[in-house]
Specification:
Number of strands: 0
Distance between the termini: 73 Å
Order of helices and strands: HHHHHHHHHHHH
Largest sheet: none
Shape: elongated
Mean pLDDT: 87
């Protein structure tokens, strides 16, 4: 038997060696793969552990994506709701400004100018009808002129108070109103002195001098100041109108963008849930989408309706009110020019030209004189009646006829022009009587209110003018009322629909998110 040194092992030693060998084999050397088990995966195919990890990552990202979508929808909903809230508050403030300040102070300034001209016309009529210290007084014209004078004076005082309140905070307007108030006090003093002198025997000449001074103060200071106030107030209204319409347009565009983004997000989320969770529809999310669409429609309608009512109030109605108010003030001044023409024999040429100038401001005919005015008016008016687009005249009546908007407005405006034409023909009668030396007949025809007389025809003209003005005032008030209603009625409903859309979105996603909870 041959014995090899170091190779003989006891049973215990063999067992230890075998165990050590198994232990070393089980430990992987660094960077080398261990032994592969039988039945290993083919190359390119994920292992069971990798597949499990991928599913776990997907399980983690889906709820995160749903939460992100929910946050985005809620953010869009909140942004649209905030936009509609701010737009509603701004529109309400605009209507408060239009109805409470811009329109009243513009019409007050126009009413002031009209009342001032009326006062001056009635003062002239008082002097014409009073006789000599009451002797030979024309009772009816005198009493009517006195009553109209007092009424116009009270109107001026009231309008000045209104304008003083409206001008607070506007330095320029405040100074204008203060100057008007001071000059009006001076004007009343001069008229009062004229009437006092007229009541004394032989005081007619002094009365005429005082009235001339009062008329000069009116024409050189009071009337320009009142016209500047009308223009300033109307310009302020115009600026506010332009700013409000621009803001509403920007808000409407923004609301449309936000609304479309919100609806798109809701529709995409509905599609995603149907595809990933194998459900056809999510009822709560569908209801939320319908609520969002309702809010989008109501909000857009409120903003567009507000813009349209603002346009209607300003362009369709108030522009005509301003033109007709100017026409009325010019009419009273022209009527006063006729009385002044009769009062001041040495100044008749100037007052005749002044009457023509005011006639041209009302119904302008190119190149017309008093001798040709009536013929020119007949020709241009016949052309207009044949074709309403054929308007060969200018002036305040043209502005109104260019802006016919409401039922009955055209008929009322045309009636105003027809009554104006009658009054114009009366003026030629007055001047013809003067030319024939029949001065007392001219005065009686001019200031009498009997049928067929000049003042009666003037009153019919003013009634027709008031009728068409009232049509536009009524629609202005309606536009303001409907504009306020669009804000108070539609925007709260839109806000409620947005709240419902947000709540339904959260409710619709809750079951899906709950599926991911362990």
């Amino acid at each position: 038997m041959t014995i090899t040194a170091g190779t003989a092992h006891s049973p215990e030693t063999g067992a230890e060696t075998e165990a050590r060998t198994r232990q070393v084999t089980a430990v992987r050397p660094e960077g080398r793969p261990g032994p592969q088990p039988r039945g290993r995966q083919r190359p390119g195919r994920p292992s069971t552990g990798a597949l499990r990890e991928r599913l776990r990552c997907r399980w983690a990202t889906q709820p995160a994506g749903l939460r992100l979508a929910r946050a985005g929808i809620l953010l869009l909903t909140a942004a649209l709701a905030l936009l509609l809230l701010l737009a509603g508050l701004a529109v309400s403030a605009t209507w408060d400004t239009v109805d409470g300040r811009d329109a009243p102070r513009t019409t007050s300034a126009a009413g002031l100018g009209l009342a001032l001209n009326d006062m001056d016309a009635q003062a002239a009529n008082i002097l014409l009808s009073s006789g000599d210290a009451g002797a030979g007084r024309m009772a009816v014209p005198y009493d009517k002129a006195t009553g109209f004078y007092d009424s116009a004076r009270r109107t001026v005082s009231r309008e000045l108070r209104t304008l003083a309140v409206a001008a607070e905070g506007d330095t320029r307007a405040e100074h204008t109103v203060e100057a008007l108030t001071e000059n009006f006090a001076r004007y009343q003093e001069l008229i009062g002195r004229a009437l006092e002198n007229d009541g004394r025997a032989g005081g007619k000449a002094g009365a005429l001098d005082d009235y001339r001074s009062a008329t000069a103060l009116l024409s050189m200071h009071i009337r320009p100041e009142s016209q500047a106030l009308i223009a300033a107030n109307n310009d302020a209204y115009e600026s506010g109108y332009d700013a409000a319409r621009s803001r509403l347009t920007a808000e409407l565009v923004t609301a449309v963008v936000l609304g479309l983004l919100l609806l798109t997000a809701l529709v995409v989320l509905q599609w995603y849930l149907a595809r990933q969770f194998h459900r056809i529809l999510n009822p709560a999310l569908l209801a939320g989408t319908l609520c969002a669409f309702l809010a989008f429609a109501l909000g857009g309608q409120a903003l567009s309706a507000s813009s349209e009512h603002l346009r209607g109030a300003r362009r369709d109605a108030f522009d005509s009110v301003v033109a007709l108010s100017r026409a009325r003030a010019i009419a009273y001044d022209a009527n006063a020019d006729e009385s002044r023409y009769l009062l001041f024999e040495q100044e008749r040429t100037a007052y005749e030209q002044s009457f023509l100038d005011k006639s041209q401001q009302l119904y302008g005919i190119e190149g017309a004189t008093l001798a040709t005015y009536d013929t020119g008016m007949d020709e241009t008016w016949d052309a207009y009646r044949t074709d309403h687009a054929d308007r060969r005249f200018t002036g305040e009546f043209r502005r109104e006829l260019d802006n016919i908007t409401f039922p009955g407005e055209r008929a009322a405006a045309e009636r105003t022009v027809r009554t104006y034409a009658v009054y114009q023909r009366d003026d030629r009668t007055i001047r013809r009587l003067i030319a024939e030396g029949r001065e007392q007949e001219a005065v009686a025809f001019c200031i009498s209110w009997g049928p067929g007389k000049s003042n009666a025809h003037f009153g019919a003209w003013m009634d027709a003018l008031d009728e068409v003005t009232d049509i536009n005032r009524t629609h202005f008030d309606a536009s303001v009322r409907e504009g306020r209603g669009a804000v108070s009625r539609l925007l709260p409903s839109a806000g409620g629909a947005l709240v419902a859309a947000a709540a339904l979105t959260v409710l619709g996603l809750r079951p899906r998110l709950a599926e991911f909870q362990v």
